[in-house]
Design brief:
heterodimer; A: mainly alpha; two-stranded antiparallel sheet; 13 helices; B: mainly alpha; about 75% helix; globular
């Protein structure tokens, strides 16, 4: 563990930010549109590796981040396309499988991804690398800038007419079709956007870690994001952030427990057993999460609300 | 490298047999409970560990290990169905929620296994020495596996077409409402299908562990091809599953030969299953057959 408590806090903040960004991206897909993306980690990974490879060639950080996000976004649309006309379980199977396949692919491509040995990611903030505190701080700023923009983007998007179509697709995509909208088209766009955001998170992650290998991108990451979203409250961006915060604190707690507590069971195993049981209990007794779905914020809706208050 | 056609065909049959045993439960529960159970991987793994109770010594009895894996996986599946999936269904949980629950259950079980038997790889202590028959490298284990899968396929054929329970399973899978009005106890039949299917997955786990090694990721590592055969066969279709297992078994083993020849990593083996999955979804999402 880091000896400097400030660095520990900064490190934690970075991870909470990256997790929040992933949870927001899943929220756009699942929370608002009802798409069960079970391979979130694949797009996170695509973003991370693309970022690493681009920055290696000397591309500026912003270009590399956007490059990683674009590759992730395109993959997201492409991979989900065959499954989108079918029931949602097919999308789950395809995305989950794709996560595993992409990881195998990266593992086998020793040449440019470093395979199992991973790759070093050249530091983008060269000025700050000398001081771990400044480096941490610079990363906190970067991650929260990106996550903040994503938050505002999704928040604005879901309150537009476009966003209402997404919610309608989630509730009943046949009804949407009857109204002359093509649900598949919307779903592809949402998966591209969601994967784009996951790719951004991947780039920020690679940038911060300065080293990535395939073992950082286990299906576990996807599971964490799902726990965060379901715990916090699907269809609520604040819920996504809250969930990410809780999951990360839980994670840290286990690691601390491992160092300081003598338990009869391995804390790592215990953590997963508890996470597994927790998610099942949540789905049984409180599937809407802690916060529940956020309310619509449109001028018309607000007028109606005020009108209702006057009466 | 010389292509040894006989050996590749034998290897293909071994792979196909494994997929058939592992996939039967998945396709049955998928059809009856209408969701893909990702914790199916852990039924396979748990069966393998239950078998280890008899395989931790060189003079252990392999039939006893098979029996133990069969029963162990069945019990785990019954508990999963009764404590997790049935309550969720009764509360009208959405499809995505049930799938997430199955992933959560999978993690819990996998780590409980890791806690009990450690995360390191174990080996069954009974050794199967290979011998040569007509130029083929064969072990008795492989022959047992092919024989078991063949026998099970035959038994299941008669079970599904001739017995009340088998017909009830098919009835619920094809038309649940009609099945209910004809007086079929849907809950009981579904529970039995969950037990039976997972028991077969447990057998697959024992064979897999005997042939390779035993570790908590054993089931997860073959889950993708098992899903591929389930979708290729057509969800709920047992005959489709048999055909799909053969197709993927042969595709993988011939594919590996070509990969090696092309100088590519055999890690790409999994991609064959993924490719099959994608092509099926594009071309024929219903899969090969309906019952």
């Amino acid at each position: 563990m880091a000896a400097d408590p400030l660095i520990y806090v900064l490190d934690m903040l970075v991870f909470i930010g990256i997790f929040s960004l992933l949870a927001i991206s899943l929220n756009l897909e699942y929370g608002f549109t009802g798409l069960g993306n079970f391979g979130k980690v694949a797009f996170f990974m695509a973003g991370a590796y693309t970022y690493a490879l681009m920055i290696e060639t000397g591309a500026p950080i912003l270009v590399s981040l956007l490059g990683g996000a674009t590759v992730a976004g395109l993959l997201g649309g492409l991979v989900s396309l065959p499954a989108l006309r079918l029931r949602e379980d097919y999308l789950a199977i395809v995305t989950l499988s794709f996560g595993e396949i992409l990881r195998l692919f990266v593992k086998a491509q020793e040449g440019f991804t470093g395979g199992v040995h991973g790759i070093q990611v050249p530091a983008a903030f060269t000025a700050f690398v000398a001081s771990p505190r400044l480096f941490g701080l610079a990363n906190v700023v970067l991650v929260y800038l990106v996550a903040g923009v994503a938050f505002l983007f999704v928040q604005a998007l879901i309150n537009t007419p476009y966003g209402r179509v997404l919610r309608a697709i989630r509730e009943d995509d046949v009804a949407v079709q009857v109204l002359g909208k093509n649900p598949v088209l919307y779903k592809v766009q949402v998966l591209v956007a969601g994967s784009f955001l996951a790719g951004l998170a991947g780039g920020a992650f690679a940038q911060y870690m300065r080293f990535i290998d395939p073992y950082m991108f286990l299906p576990l990451v996807t599971f964490y994001v799902w726990i965060a979203l379901i715990l916090g409250g699907p269809a609520n961006n604040w819920g996504a952030v809250l969930g990410a915060l809780v999951v990360e604190i839980f994670n840290r707690g286990t690691r601390i427990a491992k160092d300081y507590l003598v338990l009869p069971v391995d804390p790592n195993n215990l953590q997963f057993i508890m996470f597994g049981v927790l998610i099942i209990l949540l789905l049984l007794y409180r599937p809407q999460g802690i916060l529940g779905e956020s309310r619509l914020r449109t001028p018309a809706f607000r007028r109606w609300e005020h009108g209702a208050a006057d009466r | 490298m010389e292509i040894d056609l006989g050996q590749i065909i034998l290897n293909s049959l071994i792979t196909s047999s494994l997929y058939l045993l592992a996939g039967t439960g998945l396709t049955l529960t998928y059809a009856l409970s209408h969701f893909p159970n990702f914790a199916h991987a852990e039924f396979i793994t748990f069966g393998a560990y239950a078998g280890y109770l008899f395989m931790d010594r060189p003079d252990g009895s392999f039939p006893a290990a098979l029996g133990s894996g069969f029963v162990g996986a069945g019990i785990l599946s019954a508990l999963s169905y009764l404590l997790v999936f049935r309550p969720l269904t009764q509360r009208r949980a959405s499809l995505v929620h049930v799938m997430i629950a199955s992933i959560g259950l999978g993690y819990a079980v996998r780590h409980a296994i890791g806690e009990t038997w450690t995360w390191g790889a174990l080996s069954y202590q009974v050794i199967w020495s290979p011998y040569e028959i007509a130029g083929l490298r064969v072990t008795a284990l492989w022959l047992y596996l092919i024989l078991t899968a063949g026998t099970i396929a035959l038994i299941l054929h008669f079970f599904l077409t001739r017995t009340r329970l088998g017909k009830a399973i098919r009835a619920i899978a094809t038309n649940p409402e009609l099945a209910r009005v004809t007086g079929i106890n849907q809950h009981q039949v579904t529970l039995l299908a969950w037990i039976l299917g997972a028991s077969l997955a447990g057998l697959a786990g024992v064979f897999r562990a005997a042939d390779t090694r035993l570790f908590p990721m054993l089931g997860w590592d073959i889950l993708l091809p098992v899903f591929a055969v389930t979708v290729l066969g057509g969800i709920g279709s047992f005959y489709g599953l048999i055909a799909a297992s053969l197709i993927l078994g042969f595709a993988e083993n011939f594919g590996v030969v070509f990969l090696t020849r092309a100088g590519l990593s055999t890690e790409y083996r999994m991609m064959i299953a993924f490719l099959v999955l994608i092509v099926v979804l594009i071309v024929r999402p219903k899969g090969l057959a309906r019952w």
